[in-house]
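Hi there. Long-time user, first ticket. I'm pasting a complex I've been working with (about 893 residues overall). I'd like to know whether the download I got is complete or cut off, because the file seemed smaller than I expected. Thanks.
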Amino acid sequence: MTSHNQTSRKQIHLAAHFPGVNNTTIWADPLSGSQIDFSSFEHFAATAERGKFDFLFLAEGLRVREHNGQIHDLDVVGRPDTVTVLAAVAAITEKLGLVGTLNTTFNEPFELARQLASIELVSGGRTGWNIVTSNDAFTGENFRRGGFLGNPDRYTRAAEFVDVSEALWADQKVDHHGEFFDVVGQLSIPVSPQGKPIILQAGVSDEGRDLAARYADAIFSPFADLDSGRTFYADIKRRLAGFGRGADELKILPGATFVLGDTEAEAEERYQYERSAQVSGATALRTLEAVWGRDLSEYDPDGPLPSVDLVVENVELTAGRATHHIDRRGSALAWVEKAEAEKLSIREVAIAKLSRGILVGTPTQIADRIDEFVQTEASDGFILVPSITPTGLDEFVDKVVPLLQERGSYRTDYEGATLRENLFA
Amino acid sequence: MSIEIREARWDGEEATTLRLAMDTELRPRYADLFSDTTSAPTPVDTAQIVFTLIAFDGDVPVATTSLKNTDGFFEVKRVFVAETHRRQKLGARLLAAVEERALALGITDLVLQTGLRQPEAIALYEREGWVLIPPFGPYAGDTEISRCFAKALVPLFVAVELPARGEPATLVRDAVAAIGEFAGAGVDVAIIGDDLRTAPAGQARVDAPTLAAFAAPTVPGIGLAATIATTHTEPFHLAKVVQTLDHASLGRAAWQVAISTSAEEAAQFGRKPAVDDAEAWAEAEEAIEVAERLWDSWEDDAEIRDRSTGRFIDRERVHHIDFEGRFFSVKGPSIVPRSPQGRPPIVVSVSSAASLDVAARRADIVRVAPSSVAEARAAIDDAGRTGAVTVLVDVPASSAISDTLATLRRDTGADGAVLVFDEIPDATAFVTALAPFVRRDSPTTLRDRLGLERPASRYVRTLEGATL
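Hi, the file is complete. Here it is re-exported in full:
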């Protein structure tokens, strides 16, 4: 255990999300490096470990995104296999946790539990699993058993998947016969120093929250503003008691981007640059097409929005990512009204709708903001997503981490050797 | 001194005279062991002589040696330097000339026999990189007088296979240390075995590709082949695992294709009953096809980062594979961009007729028993394969490994060997034994080691009328 000069302060937990295959990642910047070369993962992990982050976080998508029947080409495309790259990163890090997103719909419990137990073994107990479920037939086309589970089914299946995995991680003979799985066997991999991998969950639906309260050690939360963060935090902590768990047994970590500047003005300028770089004219039109449900490639991104009358209901142009539009006409109307009220072009309104830069400011301002979130129970820390691969985290670690350490809210060294020891220190 | 080495007749006057001098000099050393009638060397059938070399000092013949084909052993015979010309490295020059000429004739391995009372000759061979081996061919059994040596003129392809199994507390450390030692010893590829079944009491297992990926960043040089069985997994998953191992190892990955036919493994997944060998290999072959298509699904130059149009990739160069087979249907493309080797090599260990068929059609490295190389090569020819297919024989990893390797190509017809370890070994013992047979350079990728070109994606479309 480290000594803190202000032991009463709640400790901040930080994680580093390797920039993903979405428009947050700015690939056109001159500093932008490879999204796939191992050296990028090496650099990113080394920075996170230097900054004493709890863990490295990897997202996953098992089918390349498409738009209107064609492969989406405007954002970063391509990433490694989660388990394999985490095993390689384990070899070049010592204390950093290694958390991967892995899908319960397109995997089998024996195989996935074995892979996770294997990274546990090679990393000495630093692994975490962000559990995602999918009912997505689009992704299912890459797998022989497809993916056609209804919403309630996929949470039941995920729960059974985790139950079987936990039994296997105890390295005992498992003889499971359930609704979704029949698994008889033993992993022959020793119980890890942290007992079992850390479990993360990202769902915010009612079932998703219960699944998290029952199984998860941490939640990757979308609530990155103070008010909704506090409401979510209170709700989850309340649910924990229903599963016989203590309030400290689950960490809530919102995902957040950040933009740093030496002065407030510089940060704001950088923020405007990033928003503009994240939403090119082509990306703005694609985004609009997803809402309108039709091809809009003839429109000028710097011109006015198309009429709401052109919206085609019940057409899903975007495939392979989580966000879907339910009330298409209502969404389109909101966009048009915003554009008319603020005199915005297609691209300007898309920038306004797509960009979330909740941590913008000087290092001191960002440190203040993060600390405020944690000390006022809006979160237990953050999962930070830089916009530049792989160097986007460097500045944060060099400039913000020391400020958090100075105020006694953040570790100066790892408390333990396992992810569990550090996450719950 | 100006020495010139020229080819000559075995039974010409110069060579005969020099060999007579050699007999005269050596006979007394062995007089107590042989009666006068048997002390002369066995007469040589001149039809077996590949070539004879003579070193001339001006017009004077001063040294000789010959190469003889003795039942498939290419044997260096009768190395002799006249007393007047010793201590001038003439022996070494002659041996170098033999090696150069043999290589030009396509000969890859040399052997020779000398006697225990010729310490100066033994010292020469050891200095020149020859390896002591048990008496071969005509000298077999004569361990009293014969001292036999071998030299590989072309390196063997040397693989090791280690189980991903061992002491729970030290398995990972021991495995990475062993792979590191073998890498240092010049071994071409470490094959990580895998087995989903419960480990023997007191032992633990680890997932093979995970262990290989963990070794990749810290162990340079050596190829890393992970065993993945196709019977109970999805080809989409295993394809991206192997591609990612290839990215993390900077082009040193391979996939050893395996099957699972036990009821125990079927019960772990609970999806289908155990299948027999032929059915499992049929499915494995389809999985290989899916994996290779996925590996090609991104063309090498798909990532364009074109700022003017805002496009990160050229989607015309990222392809659906649209595979529909008996066992799988897979849409693609892979989520992983094309890896350093494009298509990481495929390893198949032959254990049945069905696995031989798949190996012959699909494998870059075919593993067979020492007696089955000819059968494997015939199957590879029948499959109409173009490009190099490396045939390796499984040999037990024992302290006599250099004896096995010294005559491996002649004895088996294989391109190299897989040293099969039942346990993770202390590899330091093998470093010296392997040194004479492994390559000295360190190619970047495993395909380079196998002499395989980096393949273009099968989906590359050439413009009509375009010229290259």
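A couple of notes from our side: Chain B touches chain A through 64 residues (CB under 8 Å). The domain at 3-152 of chain B is CATH 3.40.630.30 (Aminopeptidase).
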